[in-house]
Write a structure and sequence with these properties.
Elements: H1 11-19, H2 39-49, H3 51-64, H4 66-71, E1 77-82, E2 87-88, E3 91-103, H5 108-174, H6 180-214, H7 237-247, H8 249-270, E4 276-285, E5 299-306, H9 313-381, H10 387-422
Antiparallel strand pairs: 1-3, 2-3, 3-4, 4-5
Helix pairs in contact: 2-5, 3-5, 5-6, 5-8, 5-10, 7-8, 7-9, 8-9, 9-10
């Protein structure tokens, strides 16, 4: 909310006010995604376009500009004196001028610059960590979309099977070989399948919205169908744990911040030493002084001074602050490694279990359930099996096919989490 003051504003003031207007926030970007794009392609696009990553990169660049500021000398100062000044043997002093430069004690500027460089390096590691997180989120949304589309496909196929089965039931009811209740129960099963399809369509819309959000695209932008993609084998649990603890960006960022506090500690210890101030001054002397020997010779002289580091308590507090910062970041490193160990181990076991279960459904349970359904359908048509037997075998087959899709999606999502936790792009 703006406030209007009842004053007259100059042109320069108006320009200044205009320059303080909020910078407009970037809107969603309109760009196309190829129909053949997979989760890896979408993750690269998200890394390129997501505003949080752009902000993190700008932050890293901003922090990188602090080191030159810390490394440079303070600006020199100029002093000019004029007025009624001293009368010397050489004549009256008309004016004085001097230039002074403060020179911090050796090591202070380099330590401050090194601390700034370490902070910038930590920010760059934060960018890498955010890229890993965004990649994981894109893969998770992709597999949610895959599961929703597979659920729709499988349920639609099974609905067609039930429609074909209706003809068999109708024929048996017409021949007085089955009760009319079988028709009602079959109609109920069709309604349940329609409900599952409607739920899956809602989940599909949610997953597509999530993907477009991660890609920084408008809501409703077109996306490719989420087909099952090849999942990369990442190696042994021991190897992944070692990689996460040694080189994950979260660990590296905490280490860089610990380095920054080490440099601040060195700078704080140097604060007890004085800084030097060197200067050169001159005085303009008039030859019309009171003394007959006045010659008007100008004066030029050098100055040298130091500050007196008298108050030590603030300097001791700086040392304590830096040491606490070192302890803080060391604890952060330990916490990051502990969390990464959990994430890697949990995701590795989830991926392994989901893969084994999916293989069990694909190679044994689904083929056996399909065979049982075919035999029961033939028996029902011949009057040897009941409608209940037929529905049980059909429900088993449908449930196994849906569970296979669910486990395949779980493998993909767990592997994405494992990659992010291990620091693998």
């Amino acid at each position: 909310m703006g406030v209007t003051a009842c004053t007259t504003t100059s042109d320069s003031g108006a320009r200044s006010s205009a320059s303080l207007k909020p910078v407009p926030v970037s809107a969603a970007i309109h760009y196309s995604v190829a129909d053949t794009s997979g989760p890896e392609d979408l993750a690269r696009l998200a890394i390129l376009h997501h505003p949080s990553l752009k902000a993190a990169r700008h932050r890293a660049e901003r922090l990188a500009q602090k080191a030159p500021q810390e490394r440079s000398l303070p600006d020199p100062s100029v002093e000019i004196g004029a007025g009624s000044m001293a009368e010397t043997a050489a004549g009256r002093v008309d004016a004085m001028a001097g230039v002074k430069q403060k020179i911090p004690f050796p090591g202070k500027r380099s330590s401050a610059a090194a601390a700034a460089e370490s902070e910038a390096a930590a920010a760059r590691e934060d960018v890498k960590a955010l890229e890993l997180k965004l990649t994981e989120q894109v893969h998770a949304a992709w597999w949610d979309l895959y599961l929703a589309e597979e659920t729709i496909r499988i349920s639609s196929e099974n609905r067609a099977v039930l429609e074909d089965l209706r003809e068999v039931v109708d024929a048996r009811v017409a021949a007085d070989e089955a009760a009319q209740a079988d028709q009602l129960r079959l109609a109920n099963e069709l309604s349940l399948v329609d409900r599952d399809i409607a739920d899956a369509k809602q989940l599909k819309s949610t997953a597509r919205s999530r993907l477009n959000s991660l890609l920084n695209r408008p809501a409703g932008a077109s996306l490719p169908s989420a087909s099952r993609t090849r999942i990369i084998t990442l190696g042994s649990l021991k190897h992944l744990l070692a990689k996460a603890e040694a080189s994950h960006p979260e660990v590296a960022a905490a280490q860089r911040r610990a380095d920054a506090f080490q440099h601040r500690l060195r700078r704080a210890k140097l604060e007890k030493y004085p800084d030097l101030t060197a200067g050169i001054s001159g005085a303009s002397v008039s030859d019309s002084g009171l003394s007959g020997a006045a010659n008007g010779r100008d004066q030029v002289y050098a100055t040298l001074g130091i500050n007196i580091p008298l108050w030590q308590e603030p300097r001791r507090a700086m040392i304590r602050e830096a040491r606490e910062g070192i302890s803080e970041t060391e604890s952060m490193i330990a916490a990051a490694r502990s969390e990464l160990r959990y994430r890697v181990e949990d995701a590795w076991h989830r991926a392994k279990t989901a893969h084994e279960v999916a293989n069990l459904f694909e190679t044994r349970l689904i083929p056996d359930a399909q065979q049982a359904y075919d035999v029961t359908l033939a028996g029902y048509s011949a009057g040897r099996n009941s409608y209940t037997d037929l529905m049980e075998t059909w429900q088993d087959l449908l449930g196994y096919r849906l569970q296979l899709a669910k486990n395949q999606a779980q493998v993909g999502k767990a592997t994405a989490t494992l990659r992010a936790a291990a620091g693998i792009r």
